Structure formats: C-alpha cells, structure tokens
Amino acid sequence: MRKTDVNKIHAIKESVLTLSQSEGLSNMTTAKIAKNAGVSPATIYLHYQDKTDLLSRLYEEVKINLHVGLAEAIDHDQNIDSQIKQAIAYTVTQYRKYPDQAYFMGTLWSNQEMLDEHAIEFGNTMEGPLADLFERIQVSDEYVDISRDVLETFFTVPTLILKREPDITQEELGKISNMIIKAIRR
C-alpha cells in the first residue's frame, strides 16, 4: 500500500495557489501544477480525480481556513453595527495574512464552472458566525430587507478594494465599513 506524502500534497496545493495568479485558472494544467510542485503528474492523480476535483477540494479547504477564528472576532455583546465592522475587519485581516488563498477563493467564486457541484454547494452554505450575523441583520427592523446574496456582496467590497489598493489604510477601511452599514440600514 502506497503511503501518502503530505509534503507532496502540500506542494501541489501551493503550486495551485501560485499558478492561479500567474497563469490564471483556465491556463493552469495538471502538468504545470505538477512541474511547479516538483512532482510527477501521476502524483496529482493519486490524490485527485482531475483538475476540477483538485480545485474544488482546495477551495473547500481554503474557505474553512480563512474562516477559522471568525467566531472569536465577533463580539456578540456588541450591537449589530459593531459586529459588522468586526466581521469586515476580520475578513480584511485574513485577506492580508493569506493573500494567495484569498485571491484563489475570489477567482474561483467568480469562475464557478471550474468547481464541482459539491464545492459550489459548500461555497453557498454559510454556517457559523457570519450566517448568524446575516440572520440578525435580516430579522432586524434597523436594516433594509435584502437577501443573503446581497449581504455577501456588500461584505466582499473591502477585499475587492484591497485587490486594487493593497496599501489601503485602516482608517480608509473603517470608512468603507461605515459606508456598507449606511447602505444596509433603514
């Protein structure tokens, strides 16, 4: 029985993250991934069915990793506006801490045809602290009646701006958070 080499799996995942930025998703092939990772293409197929399976499983893993700690970042004793600011600040911190992963997530979310059904469903399933916050926003009379999809879009605005302006200040990000709150308040 063949033993799983975690170093090779890690190298494959890092290769995908790197190549997603330099090559783009559609130009990324398993051969390029393998070469960049320093493994044979057969090694990829030992762990993944194909490129879609690799991208999908990595997408799910990265999504989980980027949300670790979000529950602790949101102080449930604060009002909803403060919790929105805390959630956005956390997202920005994670984006800055893990830019390759955040870029990968955003790129795949914009190119869902490259994901399998399970990954798309996984991406659409929101659990935990962010889902709880969105639910509190949706049931509160202080906020406009908008869908979860619209809320998600508003919450991605700071990271979209960070892609274009990586050196944006905390003060400017605070203003963006205030604009988002103003946009969804009654």
Describe the structure.
- By secondary structure, this protein is mainly alpha-helical.
- It has two domains: 6-47, Arc Repressor Mutant, subunit A (Orthogonal Bundle), CATH 1.10.10; 69-184.
- It has helices spanning 6-22, 30-37, 41-47, 51-67, 70-73, 80-97, 99-110, 117-124, 129-139, 148-164, 170-184.
- Helix 4 (51-67) packs across helix 7.
- The longest helix has 18 residues, at 80-97.
- The termini are far apart.
- The mean pLDDT is 92.
Counting structural domains, the number is 2
Which percent band covers the strand fraction?
Answer: under 5%
- Helix/strand-derived class? mainly alpha
- The residue ranges in which pLDDT falls below 50 over 5 or more consecutive positions are none
Give the SSE order as H and E letters: HHHHHHHHHHH
Largest sheet, strands/sense/barrel:
none
Continuous helix count: 11
Mean pLDDT over the residues: 92
- The tally of beta strands, per DSSP, is 0
Helix content: over 70%
Distance separating the two termini: 62 Å
Broad shape: elongated
Write a brief structural summary.
With 186 residues, this protein is mainly α. It has eleven helices and no strands. It folds into two domains: 6-47, Homeodomain-like (Arc Repressor Mutant, subunit A, Orthogonal Bundle), CATH 1.10.10.60; 69-184.
